[in-house]
Structure formats: structure tokens, C-alpha cells
Amino acid sequence: MPGPPPTALQPRKTPRQSRSRVTVEAIFEATIQVLLRGGMNELTTTRVAERAGVSVGTMYQYFPNKQALVYALNARYLDALAARIEATCREHAGAPLGQMVEALINTYWTAKTERADVTRALYRSVAELNNDVLIHAFAERVDRATTEMLASACDAVFPDVPRANLALVTVIYGTVRNAFERGVSDQEAAALRQDLTTMCRAYLANFRA
Amino acid sequence: MPGPPPTALQPRKTPRQSRSRVTVEAIFEATIQVLLRGGMNELTTTRVAERAGVSVGTMYQYFPNKQALVYALNARYLDALAARIEATCREHAGAPLGQMVEALINTYWTAKTERADVTRALYRSVAELNNDVLIHAFAERVDRATTEMLASACDAVFPDVPRANLALVTVIYGTVRNAFERGVSDQEAAALRQDLTTMCRAYLANFRA
DNA sequence: ACCTGAACACCGTTCAAGT
DNA sequence: ACCTGAACACCGTTCAAGT
Description:
2 copies of one chain form a homodimer. Chain A is an all-alpha fold and 209 residues long. The first copy, chain A, has helices spanning 18-38, 45-52, 56-62, 66-91, 97-113, 116-127, 132-151, 161-182, 186-204. Chain A has one domain: Tetracycline Repressor, domain 2 (Orthogonal Bundle), CATH 1.10.357.10. In chain A, helix 4 (66-91) runs antiparallel to helix 5. Chains A, B: InterPro entries: DNA-bd_HTH_TetR-type_CS, Homeodomain-like_sf, HTH-type_TetR-like_transc_reg, HTH_TetR, TetR_C_15.
């Protein structure tokens, strides 16, 4: 069980008045814009503040430092991603294995692909953080959903569900990321996605009841 | 075919005298040390120079900027990795598919794992770079070796070798990376590696002659 | 309760001066 | 041919003063 994020990375205060909620939202939006434009190299606190229409000081009221800002942005993104995966798992409880695999790959792939530029920017930005806590929290939350789904499959029995789950999710998430990094073409991506599904299915066929 | 790395990232000059070759080597070594100690956040030119026992100015004689230094370090690492993969492919030319898969996974996994801390530090450092050129050059070089190997398999016929190759390497490289990011335990890693092999074999079984 | 922006310390980078 | 290190611009962060 992962603890809370390192104190230095936690938001300084939670916005209470609606004015400040707007401010924080503007800061997040500005951060994405700046990241998309110039990547982490050009992500300066001044630039983010300027784009968000606030002063640097204001930014520092909500985030103790630049890293915390990027950290919070990624936490937000991973939270949304986890929610989508959880929904998919709920929808496919008790379904046959083949459908589960397809649904999982589809959800993850779509989530990462629909805003490829944002995905890429965040992949890069999160690398610079002490992201262990972030990754662990995400992994644990999503693993819970996917293992439950797998365990509920109507046409399979697993001697070791966590193990099968680990293989499945590591391969899927890793492959998607690597595809991004290689910058595969749309055609290559389509073929790859199909082959990934084939592989996962072939693996899971071992557990067919 | 990828062009040369962006001019801004290329080494400024190649060391000609042995004195300067030693200097460059010391700078590389210092960079790794500093990266291992504090990650990219604490990688300052002053610290690297100090640790290498030279002045900042000297560092800037060989690398036009900090990014170029990190770039060169990763280029070096990827070059060595590619060479190892090429060797494995050469050794397994004409072998049965199953052995190829096992050898490829073994080589890659071992290369990444034997110095896990360095691997982790480099994974993170390369994310901050304009690394497209670097990644493409590596991918192209390694793809050439692996596709050739696959095509030579004594017990398989591929309708589309590049496609099978893409599936294979993306899944393998991606999985290894993701395993690193999740920080899997040694036992989990062992199981995962076995399952990854199973998956790849099951996929390739489709092409058995 | 929230915002501002000048001020400070530190880092990346340069270049005139050295061997 | 190679090295030095003070100097400069810029960025992260703070805090006294404001609404």
C-alpha cells in the first residue's frame, strides 16, 4: 500500500472560493499548453503564470514548486484514466476472456491515442518526477479492477489471477507506450494492436475452463 | 532513414589528443554518477564538471549544452545495447523460432537488468530530450538485425516479416520497460518474463511452417 | 482569502586570458 | 590544442505589501 505523495509534492492548499478554483484550473490548462508547445525544457513558472493570467506568486500559493505542478497534472490524468479502465472492467464482469482482452486493449489504446500529443507530453513530463508513488497508486487501483474482472470470466479458471493480470497489463501498457515512442504509423499501429490482441488471447487460452 | 542528430545536440569536437579523450571519458563517467545520485533534477553542469575534475568551460568545449551531454550518454548506451542484440541475432540465424524468442528476451532483459539503477536513470534522462532521432536510429538498426533473424528461422514462414518483427520487439521492449516502471519484485519479474516468452511463442506459432 | 511582482540565490552558458 | 573561472542572463522561489 503506497503512502501519500511526498509532502514536497502535495498541493499547498485546496482552493475554497470559486475564484481560486478557476485560478487552479487556468494554471493546469496553461501548463498543458506550455508543455505541448515546448516540452519540459521550456516549461518555466513565469511562462505558465503568464499564460494562465496570474502572477508567479499565485501559482506558488497552490503548488509548492514546479515539480508539484507537473505532479498534480499527471495525477489528474492518471485518475481519469483509471476511472475509464474501472468502468470497462465493470461492464465486462462475467464476460468471456476474449471480450475482456479486447475491451481492455481498446480502452487503454483509445485513451492514449485520442490526444496523442497530450499523451506524449505527459509521458515525458512524468519521467522527470519522483513518480514511484504516482505509478504505484495507479497500478494498484487499476490492478484491483482488472484482476476482479479476470477472476469473473465465465470461460476460464486461473490458478494465479494476480500473475496472469500482471502479465496482461504489463504487456498491454508497455506495448502501447513503446508504440508511442517509436512513433509507429497509423497502419503499423493498427497491425500492432491486432497482433497484441492475438498474443494476449493466445496467452489466456491456457486458462480456458 | 533518419538524418544526423540535430546540430545543437551534436558533440562540438572530437577529442584528438589522448589528454582530451581522457577528459571526455571522465565527463561521461561523472554524468552517470551524478545522475545515479540525484537524477536529472540535480544534474548541473557545475556538479558534473566538478566531479569530472575539469572546469565548466572544458565541458562546453565538447558538448554545446547540457542536453547534448545527456544525449551523447544515451547514444553511447543505445549503441552498446544494439551491438549486443545484433550479436544475439547473428548467433541464432537459422535457428528454430522458439530459441530466437528466448534468446532475444534474454539478451534484452539481461542488458536492462544487470545495472538496473543505470537503466532507470537513463530511461528518465532520455525522456527530457528531443529523442526521436536517437530512438529511430536505434530502432532501425535493431529491426534490421531482428527481421533478418526471423526471416532465417528454420521452422517458420512469415507472410509479412516486418509486421511480425514489429509486434515482437514492441511487446518485448515495452514490457521490459513497463516492468521497470512498476518496480516489480524479483519473483514477479521471473514470472512475467516466463509469461512474456509464452505469449511471444504463442504468437509466432501462427507462422509455423 | 487571495493576489502581486520586485528581490535573491543558483544554474546554464560564454569568452578573454592562460598553458 | 586544450583548459580556466569570473561574468551575465535567466529561472525557481520567496515574502512584504496589497485587495
